[in-house]
Write a structure and sequence with these properties.
- By secondary structure, the chain is an alpha/beta fold.
- Helix content is 32%, strand content 22%.
- The protein contains nine helices and 14 strands.
- The protein has helices at 45-59, 80-90, 106-112, 178-193, 200-205, 219-230, 248-256, 262-265, 272-280; strands at 3-10, 14-19, 27-30, 67-74, 100-105, 118-119, 128-129, 131-136, 143-149, 152-153, 159-161, 207-210, 239-241, 267-268.
- The strands form three sheets. It has a six-stranded mixed sheet, with helices on both faces.
- Strand 2 and strand 3 form a beta hairpin.
- It is globular and about 60 Å long.
Amino acid sequence: MDSKVIVMDISPATIQAGWRGEAVPSVDLPVPEKLFNGEGEVVEWGALSALLDTVLLDKFKWSDSDEVTVIYVVPSKMPKVGKEKLLDLSFDDDKYRLEGVFLKSAASAILFSLDRTKTTLEGEAVPEVTGVAIRADKKTAIITVDPVFRDRLLPSAALKLTKNNWGSSFDPQLALSDDSINILADTIVLAVQRTDVGIRSLLYKNLVLSGSRVNESGFYEKLKKSITEKAPKGALIGMTLDPKPESAAWRGAAMYAVIEKFPLMAISGGGVSRVRTRYCS
């Protein structure tokens, strides 16, 4: 019996999916505009169910003898009810024949893709990540700024920019203006300053850019300069532009899926009701 893992990143811009072990996702589908609301929350579950059918029934094939687990990368502040709904869809009538499901936040996945954000504590087999994951994709006005400390999202500090933050002339298909980059810099500094004073220096040193927008010409240089000007005096700013920012979240989750203990962490179909809270909190 062969054990396989599909990694699927669900974001307001695209759904990316591929088998564990692939260098890049083999599936990249545009997300229907109605699927997410303006705050980046899934509101049209029928559309998501149809996309899951496309990915898990049409794009990927496996035999009845294969044990297939899916690791979903989900928006970092996805509500518990949304995570539960995703689990329900995954095990609905067993049509996908999944052995298990694992949910991982986009912020943690993005940071996991880089070695310098990881720390392996004594006695721990799985590295923990610390930093600020900044995700900015084209085709959406939503940009997320998610501080993470030792693999845990800091929800009171996590911030999100939506179309309400941009001027009326903003076009998601175009590069961000200098004014918009300054707004993003303000948001990043505010997010870090909302965290405990003892970890702020670590977060400022580990700002990670991801998403299809961040490799636009001049984006990195302008954003780092603006953050340096706005951050507390003396703060050391370390900002990384992921080598393949458009698939950073997918790739980080794929790397996470190869750790030795990963199969033990997934939720099985028969155990959803019993252990769901542990993985959706």
